[in-house]
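Journal club prep — side note

Before the paper discussion, L.F. wants everyone to see what a predicted structure for a comparable chain looks like in token form. Sequence:
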Amino acid sequence: MDQFTLNLIVVGLTFALYIGIAIWARAGSTAEFYAAGRGVNPIMNGMATGADWMSAASFISMAGIIALAPAGGYTQSAFLMGWTGGYVLLALLLAPYLRKFGKFTVPEFIGDRFYSGTARLVAVVCLIVISVTYVIGQMRGVGVTFSRFLEVSTDMGLYIGAAIVFAYAVLGGMKGITYTQVAQYVVLIIAYTIPAIFISLNLTGSFLPQLGLIGSYVPQGGDVSMLQKLDQVVTELGFTAYTADTSNMFNMILFTMSLMIGTAGLPHVIIRFFTVPRVADARSSAGWALVFIALLYTVAPAVGAMARLNLTTTFWPNAVAGNALDGDALSLEAINSDPNLSWINTWKATGLLQFEDLNGDGKIQYYNDKNEAVAAIATERGWAGNEVTKIDNDIMVLANPEIARLPGWVIALVAAGGLAAALSTAAGLLLAISSAISHDLIKGSINPNISEKGELLAARISMAFAIVVATYLGLNPPGFAAQVVALAFGLAAATIFPALMMGIFSKRINKEGAIAGMLAGLVFTAVYIFLYLGWFFIPGTNVYENVPANHFFGISPLSIGTVGAVVNFGVAYVISAMTKEPPQEVVDLVESIRIPKGAGAATHH
């Protein structure tokens, strides 16, 4: 059976599973559409949360960012620490209290706690900006994965992905999405770990990739560790040592913190904790989510390092046994004739991998031509520059099984996993957008007397509209789409997270303070990100520079969310101190959220 047919069968079976689950779990009420009827088991909710959270960025891009970072892989560990650390904040500081409040959406909590329709509307605006920005990347990830594995255009892949999401999200709402995400988690975690196990066994002899990362390099007799070998190969070719610490520590701390509080403030993640029966289950769900996420996140550094080593030694075959530059570079003849190297031309056709024989010697020299010592050797040997002109982050995980020459079914599984990761997060984001429109805008402001049936119809129409907009933006991404991580996390960190924290833990913050704080955080963060647009993005690649010197105090736009959060907190406290105290019933409400009553049951409805 050829690879295309295998891909089609595996991906088709997973899609049939998702749509079947959606039909089985069709939402029949607004409670089921928004919060799955609050009947989801905490372990299943943890699994669904893991799928909701682990997007195309986690599955497809993160290991690629770690693998290809120009400053070495070490500096990108902030992604791992920040994204998982956010769940600790969620479990301890937000999830149980928000579940105890007993509402459907984040803006609804902010509107009630700060006794203001304006506060609710500001939260809706922040939520929509965060979610729409984030969903562009997911839709793009769907298009890229489809274009490579099902041999259709990126645009056609996007249309197919949108149709699948439409089928299960509009039908099932949160209820359908939850059970679909459980299935998607199983698909994506198997798809991520099986290739990693194979590759770890090949390179290090270790069954566990986590141990393989620090294990011996088997192809060279086990005399050096895998990371030592990787450092040796990349430094010899003029790149920064993979394990080198070249970070600006102040910026790295701010970046990690921005990812943590951004994660804890992402609306599509928070609403998952409204689906469990009891308050205690919300905290338990966050704990389980962290376990399920850790299964992928502890494997990602190994995947990144091993992918980088495999890719480099593919272009310099002699590097496996000894010194790369002492041997011949990969020949064009081998690329065109060896079936084990057919992946190179396949990925070149997608535009995500580019190479060019600049000196006409029939070989492809891959090295850092900006490094003076290596450039001198290159000139001496008649090389005309680095001939691998583009390696996109996003190919590293998807191409990894092909680079490592794994069986065809593993390649098909990775295709299904990449699609599961992108689709699960897209569905969660689209639900957050549609519930903000139908529940917070239509029911909360425009038509408070709308019937349950009318609201459910409005929710479904809102979801369909959100999918159409997301598809359009995926087809025509705006200029800032490249900065999607910085924008989405920075805005969540600077707007939603501080408002929720002050809403739960401070009785003194009033509506004036909360509104002013959210607006200040939103404006400050958005202006900073757009002010430095392009300054932290290396032209011609999709690799983020760590800290260019021309940033204010060396703070990159990826890290500014932390400062935006401080601005939000500061403005909210100052304005609240200058204005009237919140009414007594709001003070009582804060007390009731924080103090447990009954056996962990939700007390406020």
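L.F.'s comment for the group: Strands lie at 330-331, 353-355, 363-364, 388-391. Keep this in mind when we get to the figures.
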